[in-house]
Fold each of these.
Amino acid sequence: MARAYLYDGATAIRHKVRIEPDEEGLLLSQEDGWSDAVPLGRLAVSDHSGSGLSLVRSDVEGWRLRVPAPVPAEIDRLFPRRQGYGRWIDRIGLWRAAGAFGLISAVVLASGYFAPTLLAPLVPPSIERAYGEALVGDFGGKYCSSPAGDAALRKLTAELDSDPRDLNVRVVDVPVVNAAALPAGNIVIFDKLFEEVDSPDQLAGILAHEIAHVRRRHVTAAMLREFGLGMFATALGGSTAGRVDGFVSLSFTRRAEAEADQGAIDMLRRARISPAPTAAFFRKLKAVEGDESRLAPALAYLSSHPLSSAREKKFERAALRNASYRSALTPREWTALRAICSDRAPTDD
Amino acid sequence: MNIERQGFDAAAPDSAFRFTGTWREFAPIAFTNLLLTIVTLGIYRFWARARERRYLWSRTEFIDDTLEWTGTGGEMFKGFVVVMALLLPGILFLRFGMQAMILRGQAEMAGLIAAVLYIGFFYLMGVARYRALRYRLSRTYWHGIRGGGDPGGWGYGWSYLWKSVAGWFALALLVPWSMTQLWNERWNRMSFGPHRFESFADTDGLIGRWILILLSPFLVMLAMIPVVVALIFLGALAGFAAGGSAANPGLMTYVAVLAIVVATYGLLAFIGVGYFAAYARKVIDRLELGDLRFAFTAGSKDWLKLFLGHVAVVVGTLGIGFVFLSYRNWSFFIRHLEASGDVELESLTQSPDTSATDAEGLASAFDIGAI
């Protein structure tokens, strides 16, 4: 027999009741003779802590039975304390659940991290082409073309890549200083880049970098990553998933950029084009990025491209003292290529 | 069954609301929540929220008994998943489609669709705010009676959209008006048991403090003048002492920058807190439920102490203390919340509203709170 109070869910009035266990469950009674027997199956614990026991009844909304502490042992034992982590975790215990979830998450993350690189070579070109078509399209048809310019671009590509048939390098008239590797062997050079590039050898270094992205299937891998872990993180929401995705995608692109730089250096060496002008290009980029502050090396971990100065040194070191380099394009070809979108004076500076 | 007539005079010397939780009790909940949230890549956060609220509500006393939180992690997770599925087309467009359209030279069309989507998301944020409040009330029980509110919130969403926009017109002078109006609109559709909340906050006493916020950039500049003058003077003095050459210009610069940053943030925080303290007092003081009137006693100083305490807790624990912020916020809220008037237990009958089933899924999707 224990004292408790009851809210019946109909009004907020607090009723004093006595409770005792019986065969069916819990017997509630009052001094005026009212009594009610509630089967155990209909009772659930809403709170069981130092302040007492609170029970709810599944078939009556708002029905609450409060047994203040100390809860008599014969009642206490009917309602085991729950941890309240959630059903699955309560069943197997906190530490085992944390271990199991951690393992599953690690597998998900690892496959999100490694699968794109491993699976990229297996993606058929048709799918890649369709993806490129859907996501990138044709730049509104703003491709530039001139017989001499096209020929120069073809020549440059062939110098860098031994089998350029599946590469489709084009210049597009969009005002950004950049070049990009797109799905299905498409590489675009944005026309404005010609304003920043001083020599055909510099362009060769940049183009080699993009070809390396294509050859190492970085674009395909990035596409898989975006649809895999990227979508997963978006759907999950919350900051944890977003942060994990951010770091994975960052390390992913940083690795890819470093690989593409290495690939470009190899290509330039085979083509006997000096990597030194490309180093000069990065020096110029560094000036644009601003003075190298002391924070810069720390920030490198948070930026997708390696620092321009690190890349500059890498290309500089690759230049051999006594190698016999040749120019990537003749002056005439270079002039034609620079003027492929619009008339541009042979040199700016 | 005998019925005792019970009524409480809530205007007792002590506040009708009491918070009896301790951070020692809360710590195991907070840290296991953090652990499980990390190992599940964030999915556990819904269950974490439910556990946290179950504890905080159970340590919150109103008159003679505690509140009770009955919402579950499962229902909040489901609500979130449903909402994310509905929002997915829009999210996909912003993530992939927009770029594809711009690269095809259809930048205007892409911009238009994106603008429509963002306006739509803004509208839904209003709806989310309304529904989150309704959900929280419908899962909050006291004496076996729960709260509720009108279903929907779609009309509130429009109101939220145009009033928020209107608030920022007229040099943002109407923001206090839109904030109090929206608060009233939200709460006037909420209820507890059979009683409706009545909210009639106005902007008296808020406009001046709000104008201070709008002027704060200029005030900061004004306040900087003596600081900068003092620093130049000190710098000159230091240079003089070192025999005409600047002794340590590096250190001086650091001190100057630090002083300016600290002073700026201090002033901005002070002005901002001044407004929000007045706003919180105003809207809660003008809130009624049946014969109950509410009051909020936190002044600017209390808010500042809360925020500085937050900073100290987080910094002093190298960040891990952030798990206690929700606890500190709730205990701050309850410790400063008061109620006066009568609660007629007999007439406080069960809420007739259907209980909310969307479980603040929309609010979770936008990551916003309810109050």
Amino acid sequence: MINLIGYYSLIIGLVISLSIVFLSIKNLRNSEKFDQRITVSIVTQFFLVVVSFFSLILSFINSDFSNETVFNNSHTTEPLFYKITGTWGNHEGSLLLWLLVLTLYLLIFLFRSKSQPKDYKIFTTLFQQIIVIGFFIFLIKTSNPFNYIYPTPNEGLGLNPILQDPALAIHPPILYLGYVGTSIIFSSVLGAICADQVSREWASHIKKWAVTSWIFLTFGILLGSIWAYYELGWGGFWFWDPVENISLMPWLALVTLIHCITVFEKRLILSSWVIVLSISTFTLSMCGTFLVRSGILNSIHTFANDPERGLYILIFLFTLIFLSILIFIFFFKNEKKELGSIYWMSKETSILVNNWFMMYFLSVVLLGTTYPIFLEVITSDKISVGPPFYHKLILPFLIPFLIAMAIGPKLKWIKSNLKNKINLILFFIISFLISFLIMSTIKVKFLFNTILLSSAFYLFFVSLKDFFKNKINNFSQNIAHFGFSLLILSILFNNFLSKEVITNLKIGESFQSKDLKISFESLNQNTISNYESLVGKFNIENSKGDTEILYPELRIYNQPNIVTSEADIKISLWSDKFMTMNYVNNQEYFNIRYQTKPFMIWIWISTLIITIGGFTSLLKKRHEN
Amino acid sequence: MYGHKVKLRFLFIFVALTILALTTFLILKSLEENVIYFQSPSDIKTLNNVKKEKIRIGGMVKESSIEIRNNEVNFIITDLNNELNVSYSGVIPNLFSEGKGVVAEGYLKDKNFFVATKILAKHDENYMPPEVKEALQEK
């Protein structure tokens, strides 16, 4: 019954989509006023998708195994929380969530843009509906979440235990709020072109959307990263895994867009660039969905390998790209005189230069992620691209990038001279000296790292000092740049100072090196609702005689039968102590990994500071209006 | 003949294109250097000479081949045609076990011996890397 309600809500939702398209086109031709029937239809459509989504959640809560999705991804012994989050822990459910966010955003867009011109609103609605229709059909045709199984099984197959974790339970919704937010930017820019509204007002209106999706995307990536650190036991924050890269690409494009749109807002230049970026952010989000969902990339996110789904998304994606390029070429009238020319010593030039750097980083990530796919298609060689590739190509360019980030905000619009040159040079000398002193105690690739560290310190000091100025020009920019410098500093120190011991131990044995001694004291076994828990007790003694006791855990889940490791982490401001214990089948030995990770928590904190920068920019805008 | 502005624009386009060409070259060059090839034990047997590159080996962990000590694990990767001895010290993923698929990353010592620096974690007991599946199917 519930399944039927869910399924038919989707069908009716699709029909309403078609009627919205019809109404919009009619409204475009005929009247001066925005047709309120469109708003009503959009509200109804959103309501139907909500009904469909909740009926799926309800099926999960009730463990209704006559539903194929529930059968594949749920189990009666799971805690209620993970039954609910299991709704989007699978292909079908997560696509339904994607559709839900898509319609939610359109609704918010309509209510937040009452004062916008009628044609612009209709065109935006129209383009957003094209995306919505695409996803409706995709969902109904290739990934219906409401398929029946007969006879009804007694027990489900269970949610992958690795997904049974609080951080990962909210990671998909937050990430989707970011990804799908770019769809509004996409529709809106096409709408603005068609209605000839690419103007200052449009820019400040759409900038809020860009900032909002960027905040969610950042936060979503952060959650995923923290999860990989403690749950997957990867013991780090970023691995250049294809799936991570895919979320990084729209992020980079969004950052570039936010900067570029600010220039457009102030000076009405770079309009084509703004349009291209708006289109590419959404395209990159869609590419991400395509690569992850088609099963081309091997990862935890690949729920099911189904060529039909991949093909559908690919065709849909190319249609959208083709459509947007056509609209850009044939309808975009760049008649408005671009104001004046660009001087090299100005804020807009420095933003443009930073944009180029961002584009460079983006293309490195894009090529590194997609090259193996193309190579396999062409030569059938199977390859992978590792972190050294990214490090080699990105790190050297980070140096001028960081310095430009420090100096750029000091410049004025149109034409400016750098004031306080002496101050800026002084800061650089100080940063260099500090880095020199620090690096001479560490001794790894001395010259390069000293310069890299100085440029990070430089941005840190310059943006820190700006907080204490009487009149802060741009508070949110300052916070975000400060957060970024802190992020780079924590990453660098984390890299320089991390230590790791990996060994295999039996119960009662201990590992001895000149710095520390790890003793495997005991192992406790407990039974918890849907898994067996093995908790090891480890005593760690360093050369100074300080001891620490860590309790890493192994969970043996009943359904599906999977072993997961839960890291035990002692967090402190300066350094994390991290331990995982792995299980080797049919052996008495346990594989132990012990790490000290300095400044780990600052990586998460600084990322939060960066998002706070985004938040304050949203607040400020509202205040000014 | 041409105005100042036109000359500037040409200069700009020229510089932009040069930078673009340079970066593309740089990226592709370092891609070539940093690529890790995936091979099966049978591929290794047909090699003419053993290179010092980092590679990935995929296959199945042979039954009762795991030997574990404090500082290392030894096991045999098989694609049911050929076998390769592997020595490894590092993090062992939970799903690493005899009779299951495995992907090891590291360096070849000779045609029979591989020193692994990483064993790739998989997240699902039914999951078999497509590379391994293919290697197993080919036989």
